[in-house]
Amino acid sequence: MKTRTMLELLTLSSGIYHFAKEAQLMDKINELSDKSKDEINKVASESQIDDNGNEMEFIDKIVLKVNQVKEELEEIIEEQVVKIYKKMNISHMDEIRALNEKVTKADKEIALLEARLNHLELKK
Prior knowledge:
- It is a single chain.
- This protein has helices at residues 2-45, 58-123.
- The radius of gyration is 33 Å and the shape is flat.
- It is mainly alpha-helical.
């Protein structure tokens, strides 16, 4: 009976935990959507002038903003790729060092075995 109760409590607490996580996720999504609405309204209310001195239309403003976001995103992605590559390169270098140490150790053992073999041949 105690095992069943413990199992039920564990299942219940797991379910509550997942509901809480989903609620936090929904709150975060709502917060981000509110921020994006404010940002869109801000872009729409700003007056921007194109190269000809005319005020840009709303769609043109959005296209301009999307291009800016695209450039920022590309920079962020590039930075992350560089970080990942450096981490991968470091791990490969560690593996190469470990293999070099094994080769060096094996060379020493081979030299020792050759010396023993020579010593045994001299005794004959």
